[in-house]
Amino acid sequence: MHSVTELRAAACRPATRFLLGTAMLFLVTAGCDVGDSGSSAGSDSLDESAKTIAAETTATAGSVTAAKVEKRLEASKSGQPATTQPSREEHVVLTVNGKQVVVDLEESAAPNHVANFKTLVRRGFYNGNAFHRVVESGFVQAGDPNPQGDGTGSEGEPIAPEIKLKHVRGAVGMAREVNEINPEKKSLGSQFYVCLTDIPQFDNEYTVFGKVVEGLDVLEKIPSGDPDSNDIVPPENRTTIQKAEVRAVEMKTKSKKSASSQPSATAPPGDEYAVLETDVTTGDGKIVIDLFEENTPKHAENFKKLVREGFYDNLTFHRVIEGFMAQGGDPKGDGTGGPGYTLEAEIKLPHLRGSVAAARTGDRGNPDKRSSGSQFYICFEPQTNLDRLGYTVFGHVVKGMDVVDAITRGDRARNGLVSPGSQSKILKASIVPSSSVSVETTSPAK
After folding, report:
1. In the structure, how many helices (H) and strands (E) does the chain have?
2. Which pTM does this prediction carry?
3. Are 349 and 66 in contact (CB under 8 A)?
4. Using CA atoms, how far apart are residues 351 and 327, in angstroms rounded to an integer?
5. Which DSSP symbol is given to 229?
6. What is the C-alpha to C-alpha distance for residues 164 and 446, in angstroms, rounded to an integer?
7. Distances from the Cα of 182 to the Cαs of 1, 187, 354, in angstroms?
8. Main-chain phi, psi angles of 380, to 5 degrees
9. Among 37, 127, 314, 370, which residue's Cβ finds the most Cβ atoms within 10 Å?
């Protein structure tokens, strides 16, 4: 389920070649000085002094889930009552730590992935295989046949994508190589992962082919990996799949075929989105942001307040780094401005592609990690390393990531600052009822 960033620091080489979004780790940090950047992506070490990210000249932070997304997913389940009669259907059953983990397979949505998974299970491929990568409160990953189990192996041929379902808690998806070498988003033949929380940022990127309907608590107890080693679990601490089998399982409550397969673009009444109308010519130029009021009430409310006051109108994205993030919200346009106040940290969620987070000054002068009152950034890619540094993620782009991707990039030699006159601009920001917007990330199946 993470990352890319930049300051004077450098890119940490990914520990695993095959993975999902969160595995591509590039850490970028920044100090308060605009010219304090110097290393290029690709260096193998990270200067200790680079572990502070300035709100004024940087943006970063991280987390993986939002309670609000869960609420919307719950709303999307309406009209699909579960059967109360016991039913027997073919499931994949994994025995982990002596307990059962039951996976309901989404054959109608991902027939090729399901057929491949069943074939491997029946062959005994997963028996004795370990969960080699575990992201705390994110996901668990297994299926690498290599003895070292570092995420670089796979069994069989790549599978054409069947990207239709959502990454809700319990969703089972297939890992794949990163977009740079796999633009078609083909899945690996054997590596799979299970979401321990909703991960909407993975929607439209990876194929979900099943859902855990029993035993998710077993997976939640698996020891996490080392964050400094791309969340790879040391061999001596790994949890293995003792046995995997395909068999009929009697379920008192039939799976609703993954609330993921029936998403709704309509949010509960009263919910609102922030809409940034930009001068970017891609699409309609609009960026739609879902704000996480439940997890970050102070940041969400402050952002809405500033939007309604017209604070963001005609401001620019003054610092934009390829593969990292686009930062805006500074009335001075150089990374040193703000509304005159800061916000108490609400660090709960991870940095994924599309995450919207509050910038802040570095830890030395800001040990409480208080956020800038107005400066924010949008992640181009997952940023797990930033999660560990501690920034408040308070929203997620649910429509218009193509617009975000087209924002004018800055000069790496100047720590990502965009030259005045070349900066992409927020023409107008507004708060609208969520029911008035047809979002992209909540309805990939439609």
Report:
1. 7, 19
2. 0.47
3. yes
4. 14
5. G
6. 8
7. 17, 9, 20
8. -75, -30
9. 37
